[in-house]
Amino acid sequence: MRGWPQTALAKSKYLATSLLVAAFVLFVVAKWLNDGEVYWGYLIAFAEAAMVGALADWFAVTALFRHPLGLPFPHTAIIPRSKARIADNLGDFICEHFLSTDQVMQKIDQMQLPRQVMRWLARRKNAELIASYTTIVAQHSLTALRDVRAQQFIQQTTLDQLKKINMAQFGGQVLQLLTQDQRHQELLNVVLQKISHLVQTPEVQAVIAEKIALELKRTVHIKKLSHYLGDWGTEKIVSMIAKEVAAIADDPHHELRYRFHAYVQTMITRLQRDPAFTAKMADIQQQILENPELKDYVQGLWGQLVDWLEQDLHANHSLLRKKMTQAVRQMAQHILKDAGMQHLLDEKLKQIAPRLIETYRVRIARYITDRVNAWEDNELVYQLEHAIGKDLQYIRINGTVVGGAVGLVIHFIGRYF
Prior knowledge:
By secondary structure, the chain is mainly alpha-helical. It has helices at residues 8-33, 38-65, 78-81, 83-97, 101-111, 113-122, 124-145, 148-164, 167-179, 183-199, 202-219, 223-250, 255-273, 275-289, 292-314, 319-337, 339-374, 377-416. Mean pLDDT is 78; it is low at 1-5.
């Protein structure tokens, strides 16, 4: 119907006002047509009491939000005048009854949050979604990194940080770490195995034979003999190297191992305690870092890296996006299969969550308080009236009906006595 109120609040106001108007019309008609019959008295009593009830409840409901008829009656416009108190109470109420640590932790336990998150990430479309969002952020970040100011800042910051590193001390610490539990001997074993394997490959043997043959040509001018000696020399050299490497690898007390250990220990001592060696390392470090060619190289390398990243991220079949999707899914699937990791995540969440809840529940309450205080009076009235105003209008409706019924009872009692 055209002109009919559209919102629920407007409809309830329309209904309540219509009942008041109907009671008034009934009162006027009953008074006008009253010929002394008993029933006219009941109708008039009903209409009078209904109007009184409707007007009283209209005044009460209106007084919550504004001054009735615009007149400053005492104890009216209660909500606008009590905005600060409402804001504080609302923030405290939500903080205490909805965001208490025990309640939130109980809900987290029920949700099994780490498992839910991992199940969500294990789905391909969700992992792809995470990778897509990460890609978008990376694309915008790369745009900023192309700026000359950003490049200069990164380059200068990196060089400044590298200059602060004591390379001699750092190198000594690395070597000392490698020598713990005889790790350097294990490293030597790996190197020896690689050398043994490398020397016995046909390609390396061919290179050795060629080098020996070229050297023999300078001294032995017989072509066939030089080739023969080259092949023979290659076989002998390979055999000798293989035997020596095998001997060192099989003998934990080989003399070369002791020499290697002594050399490493001497190097550690010099790196950590020799001022002259430390100063020399620092000088070399300074020369390297201040070398213009190094700066140009690093800048060019940085530009190539950014170009490659940008091309890959904008490609339809981005390698980084694909790898990121796979990594997210694999991580989630491994955690879902590993009960120990799930328990670890639960424990860490229970350790971290209470501190976060205590920190942010107060901030949430303060935000609610500040937000309500920031509202204009009209906005606060509008928000609350549209939230609970519909139910309040039924107070007016009930007041009209109940008031009329009470009027009938009072009229009946009056006539009875």
